[in-house]
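Risk register update: the risk that structure generation would not scale has been downgraded. Supporting records follow, first protein first.
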Amino acid sequence: MYRVAVIKGDGIGPEVINAAIEVVNSITSKIRFYEFEGGVEVFKRYGVPITEEDLEQIRKMDAVLFGATTTPFDLPGYKSLIITLRQELDLYANLRIIPDLRNGREIVIVRENSEGLYSGQGRAYEDKAVDVRLITRRGAERIARFAARIAKDRNSFITFVHKANVLTSDKYFRKIVFEVAREEGVEVREAIVDSFTIKLVRNPWNHGVILSENLFGDILSDLATIHAGSIGIVPTGNYGENIALFEPIHGSAPDIAGKGIANPIGAILSAAMMLDYLGLDGRRIWDAVRSYVAKGNLTPDMGGTATTMEVTRGIIAEIHSLDPLDLDEMWMEEVRLGRIPLRMDE
């Protein structure tokens, strides 16, 4: 039995995570979910976005399923819950899959998740503010090895996106990426980040595994979602040495919270990534989602009129209409379709 921590968050977070849990429970009984609180309301009570007691419990879990939380700009001392979790759980690698569900294509982006301009070492002075863009050998090596593993699993290559022509930290990062790639036997191509954004818009499907620093990776992966048709269907995984956290990337969307029209697909596919990480096969969920998108009524963000629950129930129906093989007896011996890495300690 696998133990999964659930942080639903606020806005549409609870709606889409409830949908993802319902889908997971429809195909396996091997996961037990444990709910934890986090976010603004916890901060107002305790002065932190998540308590240390809850963090200690979460560290003992096998994985985390995360919804969405609002990060207010005007709450003094508040630190983003998802950034807190990435740092506290040392989730150094972000893997984002941007799917073209109708045509069976994917953009794969690996983002360094713990350093760069999100290192948290900035400081404001009376007449200036400074953010530190931190690249360490340890951080660069482990994200390069993570990207190399994804590339090898997919029989692909790495496109390293950087600004080494200007930034000293990227020159250092680039050197390490090429060193690791040579050791791993993986081809590396490279691109300057500003010109690469044009390529990502015009020709997004032929860049292998895209690897970049934290801020660049954040921007590129958000830009790439235009090719998915909706940000509401994009899943992501945040991987550490001992645990991983899975989340849709769409944010809390308070303007549609409670209306029952939030797109659950991003959360459902995040749960599929979680199954792969745990050693179960998420392929059945991916296949069911593709099948449903091809013929089903979709939520308004994808041009339809369906509710969150209608899409969820439709995907579950597709799961049961596919190969009747019992998923609980289907254990991974290799990465299915080269999509997601196994647990990093295996």
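Supporting record for the second protein:
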Amino acid sequence: MPYVRYVDEAAWHSSPGQSGQSGQWQSAHWRDRRPHGGGPPIGAAIGAGLFHVFGARDAAADGLLYHRMDVLVYALLLAGPLALCWRRRAPIPVLVVATAASLAFATLAAPRWMFMVAPIVALFGAVKKGRARAALGVVAAGYVAYPLLTVVLADRLEVNAGAQPGLRELLVLAGTLAVTMFLGRAAKAQAEHMAEAMKTRAERAKAKEEQERRQASEERLRMARELHDVLGHHLSLINVQAGVGLHLMDNRPEQAREALTAIKTASSEALREVRAVLGVLRPEEEVAPRQPALGLDRLDELTESAGLPVTTTISGASRPLPAEVDRAAYRIVQEALTNVRKHAAADAKAEVTVSFSPGSLDLSVRNDGLAPEMGDGSGITGMRARAETLGGSLQAGPLPGGGFLVTASLPTSGDAK
């Protein structure tokens, strides 16, 4: 089953980072290579064997078995059921063995359907495996051989007259074989459809995961650029102030001069290292920003330009925040309002809540309009990546009564002083 193997491999490749995935793939791959191809290995063989043996015993009790129950009879009864154990590995040879054994037994007993269970199961399995043409040839040959052995050559083979099938038995047998082939084709089509659906789902899951990974990577890149701008600005300022202090402090003790010299040297070295490591993250054509750093002090400006009515509520004692937390909070509110503008109803309103708690900053952006298309898209993935990078968390989802809610909690243990 190539589709099944593809799905197993796709599922294995689309789940990186999870423990035990290699073992899971190896287990699925092993199951696909087993002689029985998964499922009950001997269930059909046992069932067919029971039908054959008990059917023969009933026929013997009714006087319709024209041979004693010896080793030959049991061998013919069990050859087909035993061959079913390999029906998925070699469907056509199994069908040949089951058909031949049942034909041989048919010359020893009156026509009964119980003796055809193994060939019927083998025929269904062969058609389901895509070997319909070869299976048709086998059953056609067997169907012709049945009256040939029991009627045409009956005298020569010393076949009892009670073993000869009538027209009714031959028609019922032909109908049974036709229905079995039809059901086998239907089962094959259904299996292929399910395998294709599984393949499509695996591809979609892999594409979504790649998109989320790419979005998170882009978000980290943008944060790295912002970090470069902030560090570059502040370290440059430290460098200038240290140089001025060094120039004006000539009349101070030598210890102060040494301290200022160390500040200048350390800040210059840090500035060079930051630019060397992070400078490659900024495209050559991109210039450094000339506007103030983004933060919650510009929240009013953000809500006024949101393009929809926004109510802002701030609770708790406002305090200076670490630059990265302040910037992340602004970006989360900005992205959440952008999502409201894109996906919510035209008359939607938004409510932004900022709560200063000891050790954390809690954000909430709620809109009251229906948002049928909003989900765990790239914007929410980016917001979640920002929060998790700082050690926080973010949740987003639709509200029971309509609308959408985005909440985030960002730790502020290192509040700016």
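The chain has a mean pLDDT of 78. On this basis the risk owner (M.S.) recommends closing the item.
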